[in-house]
Request: fold
Amino acid sequence: MTDAKPLRKYLRKFSLTSMLNAIWHLSTHLEYRSELPSQFREANPLRKGRMQLGFFLWELDTLSREAILHCDIERGLAVTDWHQVRVAINLIKVAEDAGLLGGKFGLLEKIGRLAHRQFHWQKGISHQHISRMRQMYLKPEMNEVVRHVYGMSTDQVATVGFAALATYMTHFGISHKWLASAERIVGVSPSSFLSNLTTNYESLRSSAVASRTLDENWAYTFNPLWLHPIIEIDGGARLICPVPGLLARRFTDGLYFDVVGQDHDILSRQLGPAFQSYVGETAARANDGSFQIYSEVRYGTKGKPKDSVDWIVEDVSAALFVEVKLLKMAKAAKEFVAPEAAVMKELKKLAKAVGQLYAAIADAREGIYPHWTYNGQAIYPMIVTLDDWSLFHHQDGGEINNLVRQELVERGLDPSLVDTNRYIVCSADEFEVVIQVMHSAGIDKFMSGITEGEKVGWLIDGYLRDGFRNELNHVKPLFPNDMLSLLAKP
Reply:
């Protein structure tokens, strides 16, 4: 049981808008290095790095949720100094520690969801996230879907999102005059898009109440600001954004849920192929002559057609077989170790994708691929997902590999492939770096080190920093003109 009662009691005396304003100052300082005003400067008097301060973005995320639940909407005390916020953050730490000490889950499971809670805040949202979103949704079919959902094109969504983020990085709130100014720049009213991201205090509180819990999942329960990072206040006269980092995540990765929510078949018909195309384009952009790249082809008989692996990237050392899957693991499934059924449902989807990849490799080794010839070279399996799954605690616990072995048996394949020809799961974010490192160091050097020996199961980021620092120094944005073309829009 988590003891959050002292925190609830403490927050009730403060004005909600004032507390969210304090959170805005602190979160923009941590994520975007904005200057702190005098009343909060004591939070970082020596201008230390954000990981050295003793309070973190994920704690401000939790504090915003608890403020929505417990601060006074109509009145309450103003938050006038850092000490008032620090007390609330320390009470959050106490409640979190109580949740970690109890419960039925083991150490690996607890570490796993801590990682999922913290890693996305540590990595942040970069221009690459915006560029990736734009590249995927710019495909003609997806652009039409975006236009149907938001009433504007992909480029207009990206421009509005970027303009709103840039504004909220320096302003806690905006008036409707900003919407009129943005319309002159974008050429269409931003309201049709931003309305999907906007709500009010009452609705936020209702959502937070519906999902809250006081058990060991307390720190990981849903914060409704992830879905609606903009809040309408003062009778609609102002729009505030307490955590601009959540706005950045909402108009990049978060578009997926709006689009798929309209029509789940979009996954297979349009969004999946758009993501597959993006991964291939990423490999092509990284290629300066060392790679041969082969796209998916159809083979087999007319009665039993088959599709090859999505992408083959080959150099003189080895071949990388890449299967591309959207596979966005739900935030709840990543952070809530319970309910177990929700997690296993997502892991089974991943296991099926891995089984499909091994089946594709088996066909290629038998020489029945029409576009690529197997000459005995090493073949390494890789799944590229849109989401970052951070699977280390499930891998260490054996759940993933057990599911993959079952999948291999059902396909008539040798289940020991999991141990003799190990696969890795790579997020789109990681793939953009990994493929450049492979181009410099060689596919075999990179893949053999993470699929054999003592580094099996390492997180890709740690593996890169441990053995490929020189190659990392030469990694560059693969779509450098994307943001320039977006910002150049009249």
About this structure: Confidence is low (pLDDT under 50) at residues 332-339. The longest strand covers residues 318-325. The longest helix spans residues 340-365.
